[in-house]
Write a structure and sequence with these properties.
The complex is a heterodimer of chains A (333) and B (448). Chain A is 55% helix and 0% strand. Chain A is built from 13 helices and no strands. Chain B is an alpha/beta fold and 448 residues long. The chains are: A mainly alpha (333), B alpha/beta (448).
């Protein structure tokens, strides 16, 4: 039986803008690579292995749990890679590698997959992983090695055996700028904060690099400009209010922005598409909420840093924010 | 975050690649009369016309062969001198079979238009004018094919203060309105003045996207030469600028309330080519028996703007344009209208009808075919939707079949421009699922 030759049938639209979800994800992966390099530069090869193990943990979890034929491409979309890199880059340089692997694994398993995979989770997966580590290993995650280690050396307790805390390889430890501020009322010079030769998590120390990468992600419209703008505005206004009233007691707004994980969290975590609101008005509320919470936790909380909890708390509010900031459709009052 | 500019537009929308360069500078060609024409009796929205000829009748070019069967219905005319071969079911672009008049063209006729002119518009009352337009078979040529006289008839108690001519042509590839404005500016302006002598709008605008500077210039020149009370407005190039509501918003910063028509805001919007057809009717006595169609796309050998007699088989049009350059038809998408809202065709078995604004032949690699991922809530669709709906939520609800919730989220206000599917990085068939949902919701509501 001969069949009539026919054109292919489908429905409009036939054109597409060209942006795809994997392309967005890999752009973020690309944007994260400079931080792996800077981490190695400041903290030595141990930093590389912390990031590598965390990423392996994430990718392994994704591979293990989503290997069904229909979802075969879930690894290829690149989102597990981002989560793993983010977990690794928010850890201290001397972090035991087995813990970092576990953190990456939990981030994907508990932070993303149990919700139903990509796009379904409420909380930023990387922060879920980090929050898990913070709860499970409170000492290891707050032990900071000072920068300046030789490139081919291990840091802190990198080589601890699984299920052990390990003993530090090197004894260099240094307080983070935020801890110095909170507990000793010592400020850190802005040039140091910009360059990144300070103690801190692997990816968060270099303010200048973070600002450059933020510019790249904004220009490529990978992240929504409303989030950084609202976080910075809220931090400067709210934190600045107290600084103006008592400059000797509270840090200045510039220090607030450049220190700790605020920039890193703003650029890579608060802007997570999945866990931030979808409406323009909602984005402002979300960003301002993060700013206010960061200031609140840093000034009056027990911890020197509060970016992780601030973002997680606002993640929790996101569905509610979406509901209360419904957009008015065209032609309605 | 659109680029701030002083040029008029609406908020949101997308900017697809235009692809107008293929045909925008090509003068309108005239398609030779095909040996046989197929004229469906229902080419417009509303009741089909009733055939007033029978098999074997001789018909003249411009002669009425189908009469309107109600107010929302228009007449049908023979585009050629020829013989009626019969009235039989024929395939339409939706795949449905409808009655159509088949006419064999007289190969030896000079194909002159019937010389009887309709009464001059100055001598007509408004109801007579409306009826005259109905008898001319004029429908909206932008694509919807809504009977023009229905739109021109202002309901009791309403007035029209703004007459807007739609020359946006925001769909990629299409250039038929563009070329008509450039080549038939006088007819468009004449038609505008005829229409406005009845509508009596105090403000008359022609809205044209800024990517047609030649059309804007020519119309402005003619308007100032004749001192006509018409203003040409250059609009930002953005899709869907040509949607009636978006055009009104761009020009007067007003929103048409949901469920209302433009006339409720004292607006009347009409496509430029439709207005040109009014002039052709009253000055030349030519009813709507031909229209300009853009034939374009990477798979057609000779993209062109062609004036085609209504009822010409699409096979003949493709032949006239040099044929398809791909040996494998299944690798080509053939669609009627533009690539954003057009309707795809499986075969070339249907004729050109009054609503055919374009015939596009797109190669497979030209057509978006994306892997589908979960919605990542990026919000690109939210910032694209010209109706300020939330396609992201609607898409999730559609997947679950929650039609009632979709109605609560105003899916019935969606006019299916396709901006959401165009922008979605996860390749989710958003507008496609909204079409389905709208159909289901309307059917349910009609049963209530």
């Amino acid at each position: 039986m001969s069949r009539e030759r026919t054109y292919t049938v489908s429905t409009s639209p036939f054109l597409h803008a060209g942006e795809s979800t994997p392309r967005i994800m890999y752009r973020v992966v690309f944007a994260l690579l400079p931080f792996v390099i800077s981490a190695v530069y400041f903290f030595g090869m141990g930093a590389f292995f912390v990031v590598l193990t965390a990423t392996s943990g994430s990718v392994f979890a994704e591979y293990l749990f989503i290997a069904s034929p229909t979802r075969g491409h879930s690894l290829r979309d690149g989102s597990a890679l981002i989560t793993g890199l983010l977990v690794g880059l928010t850890l201290p340089p001397g972090f035991p590698l087995w813990m970092s692997f576990l953190g990456g694994f939990v981030a994907i398993a508990m932070g993303k997959l149990i919700w139903g995979g990509l796009g379904q989770n409420i909380f930023n997966p990387a922060l879920v992983g980090r929050a898990f580590l913070q709860a499970a290993f409170p000492t290891a995650i707050t032990t900071w090695s000072a920068p300046g280690a030789t490139t081919f050396s291990w840091q802190g307790t990198n080589l601890a055996l699984p299920f052990f805390q390990g003993r530090a390889v090197e004894a260099y430890t240094g307080a983070t700028p935020l801890a110095r501020m909170k507990f000793e009322h010592l400020s850190t010079p802005i040039p140091d904060l910009m360059v990144g030769s300070i103690s801190g998590s692997l990816g968060e120390t270099s303010g200048a690099l973070l600002l450059i990468v933020m510019g790249y992600l904004l220009v490529t419209k990978t992240i929504n400009w409303r989030i950084p703008v609202s976080i910075f505005t809220a931090t400067i206004l709210f934190g600045g209010l107290f600084w103006v009233m008592a400059p000797d007691k509270y840090p200045d707004p510039i220090f607030m922005i450049l220190s700790g994980g605020l920039l890193f969290g703003t650029v890579f975590m608060a802007t997570d598409l999945v866990t931030s609101p979808i409406t323009p008005k909602g984005l402002w509320i979300y960003g301002c909420g993060i700013g206010v919470l960061v200031v609140t936790i840093r000034f009056w909380g027990g911890l020197p840093e509060g970016v992780m909890y601030a973002i997680l708390l606002m993640n929790a509010c996101t569905p509610l924010i979406n509901r209360f900031t419904k957009i008015k459709p065209y032609g309605y009052k | 975050m659109s680029i701030a500019s002083n040029i008029a537009t609406f908020r949101h929308g997308v900017h697809p690649e235009e692809y107008k360069g293929l045909t925008e500078s090509k003068p309108i060609e005239r398609m030779p009369f095909a040996s046989e024409l197929v004229l469906p009796l229902g080419q417009h929205i509303g009741a089909p016309a009733r055939a007033i000829v029978v098999k074997g009748d001789r018909v003249q070019r411009g002669q009425m062969i189908g009469e309107p069967t109600g107010f929302v219905s228009v007449a049908l005319h023979s585009p050629v001198d020829g013989t009626v071969l019969g009235i039989e079911l024929s395939e339409t672009i939706t795949g449905a079979m409808v009655p159509a008049i088949r006419i064999q063209t007289d190969p030896y006729s000079p194909q002159l238009l019937r010389t009887e002119l309709p009464p001059v518009p100055e001598a007509l009352t408004t109801p007579e004018f409306i009826q005259s337009i109905q008898n001319a078979g004029i429908v909206g040529l932008g694509g919807a094919a809504f009977p023009a006289h229905v739109k021109f008839a202002i309901p009791e108690g309403k007035t029209c203060s703004y007459l807007v001519l739609n020359g946006c042509e925001c769909e990629p590839f299409l250039t038929s309105d563009h070329r008509t404005m450039v080549e038939e500016a006088d007819a468009i302006l004449d038609g505008t003045m005829i229409l406005n002598s009845f509508v009596k709008a105090s403000k008359v605008y022609i809205g044209i996207e800024a990517n047609k500077p030649d059309a804007i210039q020519i119309l402005r020149d003619r308007i100032s030469a004749d001192k006509l009370p018409i203003e040409v407005i250059s609009l930002q190039v953005k899709y869907p600028q040509g949607a009636e509501k978006m055009l009104i918003t761009a020009i007067e910063k007003l929103e048409v309330p949901s469920g209302n028509l433009p006339i409720d805001l004292e607006f009347m919007v009409s496509n430029v080519s439709t207005i040109g057809a009014i002039s052709h009717w009253f000055r030349k006595g030519m009813p709507l028996i031909e229209r300009v169609v853009t034939i374009s796309g990477s798979a057609i050998n000779r993209p062109a703007n062609v004036r085609i007699p209504i009822g010409t088989p699409m096979k003949d049009v493709v032949e006239f344009c040099g044929g398809i350059n791909s040996r494998d038809l299944s690798s080509v998408r053939m669609l009627l209208g533009g690539p954003m809202m057009g309707m795809v065709q499986k075969t070339l078995n249907t004729p050109v009808v009054k609503g055919t604004s374009g015939m596009l032949f797109l190669e497979q690699e030209h057509v978006s075919s994306l892997d589908q991922y979960n919605c990542i809530k990026c919000g690109k669709c939210v910032e694209a939707c010209p109706m300020f709906l939330n396609p992201s939520i609607l898409g999730i609800l559609a997947k679950k079949g929650l039609w009632a919730d979709m109605e609560d989220h105003h899916v019935l206000d969606c006019f299916e421009c396709g901006s959401c599917s165009f922008i979605c990085p996860s390749g989710i068939p958003l507008v496609q699922s909204f079409r389905v949902a709208k159909g289901i919701i309307r059917e349910r509501n009609s049963k209530k």
